[in-house]
């Protein structure tokens, strides 16, 4: 089973939604209505399913807005700064997130896939 399928199955069970609703481009909070407790349970499930040590702050982009303030205070480019902090995200994805911040939480299912892939490659 691949990463997307595993995450879809875990999310479908946790959120009590159909697996088909969980696409790579779905926002975790905006589209799937995931709450903090759901994310914590998902982290445990991902850890068990893939045998990786999940950093909740990293995988769920919890420090994103703090990092943006930190970059601003240091006079650094926000995109460059986030690339250093979120090594599992592409620059294109970071730029998309920066352009989408006004819409609310930016975490997507695809970000989880990227994180798991990156952790598995760097085991």
Task: Please supply descriptive tags for the structure shown above.
0% strand; 7 helices; Non-ribosomal Peptide Synthetase Peptidyl Carrier Protein, Chain A; mainly alpha
Topology of helices and strands:
Layout (H helix, E strand, L loop, with lengths): L2 H13 L20 H15 L5 H4 L4 H11 L3 H8 L5 H10 L8 H13 L2
Structure explained in plain terms:
By secondary structure, the chain is mainly α. It has a single domain (3-121), classed as ACP-like (Non-ribosomal Peptide Synthetase Peptidyl Carrier Protein, Chain A, Orthogonal Bundle), CATH 1.10.1200.10. It is built from seven helices and no strands. Helix 4 packs across helix 5 (78-85) and helix 5 crosses helix 6 (91-100). It is globular, with a radius of gyration of 14 Å.
């Amino acid at each position: 089973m691949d990463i997307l399928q595993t995450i879809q199955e875990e999310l479908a069970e946790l959120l009590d939604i159909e697996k088909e609703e969980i696409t790579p481009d779905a926002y975790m909070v905006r589209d799937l209505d995931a709450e903090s407790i759901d994310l914590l349970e998902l982290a445990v499930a991902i850890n068990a399913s893939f045998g990786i040590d999940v950093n909740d702050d990293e995988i769920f982009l919890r420090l994103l807005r703090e990092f943006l303030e930190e970059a601003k205070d240091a006079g650094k480019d926000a995109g460059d700064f986030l690339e250093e902090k979120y090594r599992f995200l592409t620059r294109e994805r970071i730029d998309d997130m920066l352009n989408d911040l006004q819409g609310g939480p930016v975490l997507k299912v695809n970000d989880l896939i990227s994180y798991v892939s990156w952790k598995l490659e760097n085991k």
